[in-house]
Amino acid sequence: EIHIKEPIEKEVNPRLLPGELLLCEASTVYKYMQEDGSNRGTYGKLVCTNFKISFLDDDSASDDNEPQFKNKIVGENDITLQCVDQIYGVYDEKKKLLTGQLRKYPEKLIIYCKDLRVFNFCLRYTKEEEVKRIVSGIVHHSQTPKLLKRLFLFSYASAAPNNTDGRNQTVMFETLEDWRDELERTKGNVKYKAVTTNEGYRVSEKLPLYFVVPICISEESILKYEGRGIPIWCWSCHNGAALLKMSTFPKEQDDSTSQMQKVFLDGIYKTISKPPYELLKMDDLSSSLPSLQDIQTAYTRFKQLFLIDNSTDFWATDVKWFSLLESTNWLEIIRRVLKKAIEVAECLEIQHTNVLLIEESATDLCCVISSLVQVMMDSYSRTKSGFQSLIQKEWVIGGHGFLDRCNHLHKSEKEEAPVFLLLLNCVWQLVQQYPSAFEFTETYLTVLSDSLYVPIFSTFFFNSQYQRDTNKSGESLKTQSGPFRFLTVWDWSVQFDPKALAFLNNPLYAEKPKPDKSQRKTARFKHQRQLSLPLTQAKPSTKRGFFREETDHLIKNILGKRIGKFINSSDEPPNSFREFYDSWHSKPVDYHGLLLPRIDGPEIKVWAQRYLRWIPEAQLHGGGTIATAAKILDLMEEVQSLQVKMDEEHSQAVSGDVHCVPMLRNSARLSSLFPFALLQRQSVKPALPTSTWKDLEDEDDLVKRDDEFVDLSGDML
């Protein structure tokens, strides 16, 4: 039985953005609610534009039920075309994947989204002509290959007024000065230089306009092989050791070319392993980490656990949750990536060794590892502006192929891989293990992952800086000529109002104290943590910069050889990683020093907020971290209001930069997945053995815990 609510009489029109065009629509569409097994739902209009698919019901016309955490661009019932993952049609109770031309039109439409929402629409009561138009329109505009210039990004840039907030503190790394400032900030300007060799993209279209290389690298070397085989600087450690990356030569080459390239590489290696440079360790990520295909396969299996249609499916999978989770291999990939980042951090921090990350293009796993290492070792990268600058430097300007890896144009599934999502999952592990060390929250990471699919920002919709720059100029619809004005995702005021923005900032962030100038002379460039780590030195040698008295016999033998010799992974002490890892975790945490994630067994967890937020059965009503956050934010608001009163009494000017903290509703009415999911109907648990979702947050091993009979009617997560 379907509980029919009378179709709405009044006309509800979609809210269109500048440049957004209505393409097709269908009335009397019935949208099912997903909370329970009944066919409850609401009638409305289903529309498709050149930006999104949207369902409009009578609630869409009023602002009474708007959530506190409202996205101004994408509403609760909006799906951007780039966010559509798969579309299924239901024919006589059988699901069929919809692609391309359709001969027969379904009676139900199921849309699976990349942010893991699931929409169920019934088309039985819709006119046949409207069904044909809306179904074929949605499938065509969201699933078929398209040209880059057909992205809504360009329509919006042409029509939208340029009135964005100019207070964005993110370093964009689009100018030579930005790179020089970063070199100075990390004290890397002694051994490395920012080069202008690629101005006009005369070296390579894959390289950024400006980048940093060792001072000893000549312009001729950079030009010789279009930037391949050149160590490109990522970051410098406080002790002078640096993190570098390099793209390799194509494997299919004739013998003479391969020999020439080998001689070229040998010359480069010898050049950058002489003083003043530290010893060099090379790490080929293509052999030491999973392939992009393995990452894509694992994530595809993993996300299926959360694309749940109904309550029955949820409880059915809950019975074998642990085995299903383990079989995806996604958490194991996260663990391996974090372990690799710790190994690199050990080389930089303890062995004072330069690390050269090698990958075919140096724009995928190189980006993941270099970003993670900087988040772990540089407290600046754990601030909001610092993290955003890091993404700009390593990913956006660094040339990660967002367009191909996210498959925004639906041109080739072979190129698709969730590499950026992998980074965010790894960073989330650090955020939930050391929340006070980060200025941003997990909610920030979640909305950042959602922004991958919002094509009004240029940040995640190009493969390289060259592609963005060449497509930036062109005919503008309004001005007839001149460059497009693309928005950056880092201007969060475009998506959220100040009350919602408060959820992105961590109220318990331990801000870095201002350095005492009198102490800085004696403890220069040193983390507090460094003194308690094994194999450390008081001060690097001014002559060689890498020899240490504390190093054990094996390392002494290696480091005592010619500087031109390289450390290979096989030469390292077998227990050095474990010793480094265990020693660090045995000491108190310095939130502004080195941070190492815990990676043993159950320490690697599922990012519950991102993956479970749309599943009512997985919500803990009136509990979870949001209950704590609600109290903290209320307390902060009270303190701020008292401060304002004190300032007024002393006739002082009140700063205009006071963060607006929202008045939260009673925490007992909130779900643990607030602000993304509000209080919803609880589903009835079937009478069968289940394993509790609460184990996702427990300290117990995900794998070793046996499935058990648990009553989930009270606590659920």
Structure description:
α7 runs antiparallel to α9, α11 packs antiparallel against α12 and α11 packs parallel to α14. A hairpin with a 2-residue loop joins β5 and β6. The chain has 717 residues and is an alpha+beta fold. Among the domains are: 123 residues, PH-domain like (Roll); 312 residues, no CATH class. It has 22 helices and 14 strands. The strands form 3 sheets. Strands 4-3-2-1-8-7-5-6 form an 8-stranded antiparallel beta sheet, with helices on one face. A 4-stranded mixed beta sheet has the order 11-12-14-13. Strands 9-10 form a two-stranded antiparallel sheet. The chain starts with 21 loop residues before the first strand and ends in a 68-residue tail after the last helix. It is globular and about 75 Å long. Keywords: Cytoplasm, Sarcoplasmic reticulum.
